[in-house]
Amino acid sequence: MNNSNREIWRKALYLKQPFPDNYTDSTFLEELITNARCRPRHYWPVVYEATMIGQQVAIAAGVSAAFARGIEDKLDVHVMLILDVALLLLGGTLQLFLEWRGISKHKSATDVGRGDYVVSRGKLVQGSRQCVLLVGGVYCLSPLLQTLTLTISSDTIVCLVVFSLSTHVFLYDYSFLSSMTSKLTGSSSLGAAVFASVLMASRLPDSLLVFALILFALELFLLSPYLRRDVRQASTVAHIILSSVTMCSAMLLTAFVSRLMTVMLLSALVFIIFICPWWLVKIQKVKFQINGPWDEAKLDRIPIKNYKA
Amino acid sequence: MIDSTRDQQLVNSLGRQNVLFVSDFFYPNCGGVENHMYHVAQCLLLAGHKVVVMTHAYGERAGVRFMTNGLKVYYIPRLPFYEGNTFPTIFGNFRLLRVILIREQITVVHAHQAFSTLSHESILHARTMGYKTVFTDHSLFGFADGSSIHTNKLLKFTLADTQHVICVSHTSKANTVLRSRIPPPRVSVIPNAVDTERFLPGPESRPPAPTINVVVISRLVYRKGSDLLIDLIPMVCKKLEHINFIVGGDGPKKVSLDEMVAKHGLGNRVEMLGNVTHADVRNVLVRGHIFLNTSLTEAFCIAILEAASCGLLVVSTRVGGVPEVLPSDMLILEEPQAENLCAGIERAVQLVPTTCPFTFHDRVKEMYDWKDITRRVQVVYARAHQTHSDELLPRLARYYTCGRFAGKLFCCVAVVNHLYWGFLEWMFPRKDIDLAPDVPSPGDLDNTPETPTGSNSNMRDAPDVHT
Description:
Chain B: Keywords: Glycosyltransferase, GPI-anchor biosynthesis, Transferase. Chain A is mostly helical. Helices cover 68% and strands 1% of the residues of chain A.
């Protein structure tokens, strides 16, 4: 035995070595690397990212509060319509402004010429056309939507709404909001939001109110992500202001319906924005990532999403 | 070679074993695992042991079949449901397995491949009945993605109560030990081998002097590095004039490869063969000077061994267990990037005139031999027989340490299985199960020229897996 121990073990299969097959050398697991690609997370950046989720929760809560108020018949249709138009105009203008600012920022002064205005004008025309189609479509459909679920009990509706709004928040494409991807995906999430809006609308007393509220919901669920993304990209301060405004208005809306709901929304937001990041940073310490020669080699040329063989 | 004498003693003390090989993967499937099982089984038969294989039915191929040298194969009536695996039912195969174990008077259950659900279930059942179990792991796994996490947990459960584990390379051993947290001395490294007689060099098939052929034979999938190949081939063709490529194999990436050939106008320099049967591999290999392997992950890589046996110089990516397979003068290793592999091929081209295919063949023959591998497997069986405590309580203790929740779950499964075993013993008593007559193994035939009784009627034409 002494004799054989003096020989050095080599990590090779082609050699006949004087060691038993289950011999474990002192170099065993030397090539193991732990936590090589782990970025340490810090509290405030994570809080900043978490505001995106906060925004989405606030929007879901705000829209359902508006509908609840409408179902109670305590909502003035005209106020709601004015709010819709104001939101649409405000959002549209802000978006155009950000776009114009983005273009002039990226190109040097000499490059800013007619071409850019053409791009903007094209977008404007396209946006207005889509807007007209959306508004017209919703207006024509609203009498139908109003009576859609007459034969279904309200309990079922409430249950489905809660379920689909939770689905919406859970499956939402947050990487789009954080500008990690350039296209808004997550159709099931968007579908769930629209489904919830339609269900709630079918309990409203007046078809014009259905129109106003559905438009409100669509503006927030479908159009606002683009604006929120651009705002976030443009400036940190603007993002924080927009988030606060969104969350405060949502709480204000819920306050009209029920105090309890406001308290619950507030605690949910605090939990998501302040407690969860703390939690994540804390459990980072137990993160244990192992790499070694058995790992599949990664090719630089292929985007991560195409990894499947 | 002090330990080898100790190993020899272990083998000598072993006595005749009745081994049951279990895996979802077996002939008529073709691949590394199937090949390995078949060759080890043949060599064990030659060494005088009895080998029975259990796998699931492959289409028409169901029931009991006999293969070369009386290798008995049970194709049990289970349908494959995902990637050639049977549906995991935990208890569903116990009744059948128990009958086979008793009928064939099995002494060791040897399961193959961590992907195979049949292997995992069989080890659980065999352990419930107190049989010694051995497990061979043929592949590498990651730790980060969902499927790996679940497979690793399952492996932990299975290996916690397996007497000995065999891995095909040292890298694979490290991987398995990390995945299943079993003590490293319970894992033996026993590589694959190659049937060198079937991979003889044939330099006369090579093209005349200045031209050098680079052969690639692999499934054309992402994990085998087909994307690397797509970048590499135009690069090499542009840089080196006399290099031609022969690409054998099929797969989802074939379209991209064809596209690359058309785009760069390399139709006369790249020959796409499509699917190459295992019997034709040698005929393709001998046409080349250099073998290229672009795998991104590989536990052992038997392809480079076959190529080296045919006298080809091998250029490969430095992944997994590949660096352990051949010495550095037969194998040029590069990082898995097209630029590096291109440089590797350039180096290989310079080395080709100095290499002799027949020396390569003889060296591989010296290094890898199924008989030697089988001797080492027998040592593992002997070690498995040296272990104790097959009763339920010590087994439960081992399962319990597998995890806070999983440990308790595993214990429940083991206990339920134990009760089920009791039920089976009552419902289908042992005494009612006929014992299978032995087919004399080829090792026996020389000494005792006795004709087998009874089993001849079951014999069918045995297709040879050598194809």
